[in-house]
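Researcher: Here's a chain I'd like modeled. Treat it as a single chain, no partners, no ligands.
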Amino acid sequence: MVCGTGYFSYPTAEFTWALVLAAARNLPEQVQSMRDGGWQRGLGTSLQGLTLGVLGLGNVGKLVAGFARAFGMGVVAWSPNLTPEKAAESEVTAVSKEQLFTGADVLSIHIVLSERSRGLVGASELAMMKPTSILVNTSRGPIVDEDALVDALRRRVIACAALDVYETEPLPAEHPLRSLDNALLTPHIAYVSRQLYTVFYQDAVEDIAAFIAVSPIRVMD
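Model: Modeled as a single isolated chain. C-alpha coordinates:
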Protein backbone atom coordinates (compact mmCIF):
# COMPACT_ATOMS: atom_id res chain seq x y z
CA MET A 1 0.00 0.00 0.00
CA VAL A 2 1.26 3.47 -0.91
CA CYS A 3 -0.12 6.66 0.64
CA GLY A 4 0.59 9.89 -1.20
CA THR A 5 0.92 13.53 -0.22
CA GLY A 6 -0.57 16.73 -1.54
CA TYR A 7 1.08 18.64 -4.34
CA PHE A 8 0.66 21.89 -6.26
CA SER A 9 2.27 23.12 -9.46
CA TYR A 10 3.04 26.76 -8.66
CA PRO A 11 6.64 26.30 -7.48
CA THR A 12 7.70 24.51 -10.66
CA ALA A 13 5.93 27.02 -12.89
CA GLU A 14 7.46 29.97 -11.03
CA PHE A 15 10.93 28.46 -11.23
CA THR A 16 10.48 27.75 -14.93
CA TRP A 17 9.76 31.42 -15.49
CA ALA A 18 12.79 32.38 -13.40
CA LEU A 19 14.92 30.31 -15.78
CA VAL A 20 13.29 31.94 -18.80
CA LEU A 21 14.09 35.42 -17.48
CA ALA A 22 17.60 34.48 -16.38
CA ALA A 23 18.42 32.98 -19.76
CA ALA A 24 16.87 35.79 -21.78
CA ARG A 25 18.70 38.51 -19.85
CA ASN A 26 22.02 36.63 -19.42
CA LEU A 27 21.81 36.90 -15.63
CA PRO A 28 24.46 34.26 -14.80
CA GLU A 29 27.05 36.12 -16.87
CA GLN A 30 26.10 39.49 -15.37
CA VAL A 31 26.18 38.16 -11.79
CA GLN A 32 29.58 36.54 -12.36
CA SER A 33 30.92 39.77 -13.84
CA MET A 34 29.91 41.65 -10.69
CA ARG A 35 31.54 38.98 -8.48
CA ASP A 36 34.71 39.32 -10.55
CA GLY A 37 34.78 43.09 -10.06
CA GLY A 38 33.53 43.85 -13.57
CA TRP A 39 30.44 45.47 -14.99
CA GLN A 40 27.98 44.92 -17.85
CA ARG A 41 28.64 42.06 -20.25
CA GLY A 42 26.74 40.98 -23.32
CA LEU A 43 23.25 41.87 -24.44
CA GLY A 44 19.95 40.53 -23.11
CA THR A 45 16.69 39.90 -24.93
CA SER A 46 13.28 41.32 -24.02
CA LEU A 47 10.36 38.88 -24.07
CA GLN A 48 7.65 41.31 -25.17
CA GLY A 49 6.36 40.31 -28.60
CA LEU A 50 8.22 36.98 -28.72
CA THR A 51 6.63 33.53 -28.86
CA LEU A 52 6.63 30.94 -26.10
CA GLY A 53 6.24 27.36 -27.25
CA VAL A 54 4.86 24.98 -24.63
CA LEU A 55 5.57 21.27 -25.09
CA GLY A 56 2.83 19.71 -22.96
CA LEU A 57 -0.06 21.89 -21.79
CA GLY A 58 -0.77 20.28 -18.41
CA ASN A 59 -0.98 21.95 -15.00
CA VAL A 60 2.51 23.46 -15.11
CA GLY A 61 2.37 24.29 -18.81
CA LYS A 62 -0.86 26.24 -18.35
CA LEU A 63 0.63 28.31 -15.54
CA VAL A 64 3.77 29.06 -17.55
CA ALA A 65 1.60 30.05 -20.53
CA GLY A 66 -0.19 32.53 -18.27
CA PHE A 67 3.12 34.08 -17.18
CA ALA A 68 4.11 34.44 -20.82
CA ARG A 69 0.90 36.27 -21.69
CA ALA A 70 1.50 38.64 -18.75
CA PHE A 71 4.87 39.47 -20.34
CA GLY A 72 3.26 40.23 -23.69
CA MET A 73 4.31 37.01 -25.42
CA GLY A 74 2.30 34.97 -27.86
CA VAL A 75 1.85 31.35 -26.76
CA VAL A 76 1.65 28.21 -28.89
CA ALA A 77 1.54 24.62 -27.71
CA TRP A 78 1.75 21.04 -28.90
CA SER A 79 1.44 17.60 -27.38
CA PRO A 80 0.26 14.34 -28.92
CA ASN A 81 -3.25 14.66 -27.49
CA LEU A 82 -3.72 18.42 -27.44
CA THR A 83 -6.79 19.68 -29.30
CA PRO A 84 -7.42 23.25 -30.52
CA GLU A 85 -10.38 23.43 -28.12
CA LYS A 86 -8.30 22.47 -25.08
CA ALA A 87 -5.60 24.94 -26.05
CA ALA A 88 -8.14 27.73 -26.53
CA GLU A 89 -9.39 27.20 -22.96
CA SER A 90 -5.96 28.39 -21.80
CA GLU A 91 -5.77 31.19 -24.39
CA VAL A 92 -3.12 29.24 -26.25
CA THR A 93 -2.89 28.36 -29.95
CA ALA A 94 -2.47 24.68 -30.77
CA VAL A 95 0.10 24.07 -33.51
CA SER A 96 1.84 21.11 -35.11
CA LYS A 97 5.02 19.71 -33.60
CA GLU A 98 7.06 21.21 -36.43
CA GLN A 99 5.43 24.62 -36.00
CA LEU A 100 6.16 24.48 -32.27
CA PHE A 101 9.89 24.03 -32.80
CA THR A 102 10.26 26.39 -35.75
CA GLY A 103 8.15 29.19 -34.27
CA ALA A 104 9.16 29.33 -30.63
CA ASP A 105 11.61 31.92 -29.35
CA VAL A 106 11.45 30.19 -25.98
CA LEU A 107 10.51 26.50 -25.85
CA SER A 108 9.49 25.20 -22.42
CA ILE A 109 9.06 21.47 -21.79
CA HIS A 110 6.21 20.28 -19.55
CA ILE A 111 5.28 16.91 -20.97
CA VAL A 112 5.17 13.76 -18.83
CA LEU A 113 8.04 11.32 -19.29
CA SER A 114 6.93 8.08 -20.93
CA GLU A 115 8.27 5.72 -23.53
CA ARG A 116 6.57 7.90 -26.13
CA SER A 117 8.16 11.13 -24.90
CA ARG A 118 11.64 9.76 -24.10
CA GLY A 119 14.08 11.44 -26.53
CA LEU A 120 11.22 13.48 -28.01
CA VAL A 121 13.51 16.51 -28.35
CA GLY A 122 16.39 15.23 -30.44
CA ALA A 123 18.80 16.46 -33.08
CA SER A 124 16.13 16.94 -35.75
CA GLU A 125 13.89 18.96 -33.42
CA LEU A 126 16.76 21.13 -32.19
CA ALA A 127 17.77 21.77 -35.82
CA MET A 128 14.29 23.20 -36.48
CA MET A 129 14.69 25.85 -33.78
CA LYS A 130 15.81 29.43 -34.30
CA PRO A 131 19.50 30.14 -33.62
CA THR A 132 18.32 32.81 -31.15
CA SER A 133 15.98 30.47 -29.28
CA ILE A 134 16.08 29.29 -25.67
CA LEU A 135 15.22 25.75 -24.57
CA VAL A 136 13.93 25.32 -20.99
CA ASN A 137 13.40 21.96 -19.30
CA THR A 138 11.96 21.63 -15.79
CA SER A 139 10.07 18.40 -16.56
CA ARG A 140 12.29 15.31 -16.91
CA GLY A 141 15.79 15.04 -18.37
CA PRO A 142 15.30 12.04 -20.67
CA ILE A 143 12.71 13.93 -22.73
CA VAL A 144 15.70 15.68 -24.31
CA ASP A 145 18.48 13.76 -26.06
CA GLU A 146 21.42 15.15 -24.05
CA ASP A 147 24.09 14.24 -26.59
CA ALA A 148 22.14 16.05 -29.31
CA LEU A 149 21.62 19.04 -27.01
CA VAL A 150 25.31 19.31 -26.12
CA ASP A 151 26.17 19.22 -29.83
CA ALA A 152 23.53 21.87 -30.63
CA LEU A 153 24.81 24.17 -27.89
CA ARG A 154 28.43 23.75 -28.93
CA ARG A 155 27.57 24.61 -32.53
CA ARG A 156 25.21 27.43 -31.47
CA VAL A 157 22.29 25.79 -33.26
CA ILE A 158 20.25 27.35 -30.44
CA ALA A 159 21.29 30.25 -28.24
CA CYS A 160 20.87 28.73 -24.80
CA ALA A 161 19.45 25.87 -22.76
CA ALA A 162 18.19 26.40 -19.20
CA LEU A 163 17.94 23.03 -17.50
CA ASP A 164 16.82 21.82 -14.08
CA VAL A 165 16.60 18.11 -14.96
CA TYR A 166 19.00 15.63 -16.53
CA GLU A 167 19.35 12.11 -17.87
CA THR A 168 21.53 11.21 -14.86
CA GLU A 169 21.02 12.93 -11.52
CA PRO A 170 23.00 14.27 -9.82
CA LEU A 171 24.62 15.52 -13.01
CA PRO A 172 28.13 13.99 -13.15
CA ALA A 173 30.91 16.44 -12.34
CA GLU A 174 32.60 15.79 -15.69
CA HIS A 175 29.43 16.13 -17.78
CA PRO A 176 30.01 18.35 -20.85
CA LEU A 177 26.95 20.47 -20.07
CA ARG A 178 28.83 21.91 -17.09
CA SER A 179 31.50 23.42 -19.34
CA LEU A 180 29.20 25.20 -21.81
CA ASP A 181 28.78 28.94 -21.43
CA ASN A 182 25.33 28.80 -23.04
CA ALA A 183 23.93 26.21 -20.62
CA LEU A 184 22.21 27.57 -17.51
CA LEU A 185 22.06 24.68 -15.04
CA THR A 186 20.24 24.20 -11.72
CA PRO A 187 20.12 21.03 -9.55
CA HIS A 188 16.49 19.78 -9.95
CA ILE A 189 15.00 22.35 -7.57
CA ALA A 190 12.04 23.70 -9.53
CA TYR A 191 9.57 22.10 -7.11
CA VAL A 192 11.61 22.90 -3.99
CA SER A 193 9.81 25.58 -2.01
CA ARG A 194 9.10 26.00 1.69
CA GLN A 195 5.34 25.86 1.09
CA LEU A 196 5.41 22.63 -0.92
CA TYR A 197 7.83 20.91 1.46
CA THR A 198 5.50 21.82 4.34
CA VAL A 199 2.72 19.98 2.53
CA PHE A 200 4.96 16.98 1.81
CA TYR A 201 6.13 16.51 5.42
CA GLN A 202 2.83 17.27 7.13
CA ASP A 203 0.97 14.88 4.85
CA ALA A 204 3.65 12.19 5.27
CA VAL A 205 3.29 12.35 9.07
CA GLU A 206 -0.52 12.15 8.74
CA ASP A 207 -0.16 9.18 6.38
CA ILE A 208 2.03 7.31 8.90
CA ALA A 209 -0.29 8.05 11.81
CA ALA A 210 -3.34 6.93 9.82
CA PHE A 211 -1.59 3.74 8.72
CA ILE A 212 -0.66 2.87 12.30
CA ALA A 213 -4.31 3.47 13.25
CA VAL A 214 -5.31 0.98 10.51
CA SER A 215 -7.21 3.74 8.72
CA PRO A 216 -5.01 4.69 5.74
CA ILE A 217 -5.58 8.00 3.98
CA ARG A 218 -4.56 9.31 0.54
CA VAL A 219 -4.12 5.76 -0.71
CA MET A 220 -2.73 5.77 -4.24
CA ASP A 221 -4.04 3.37 -6.84
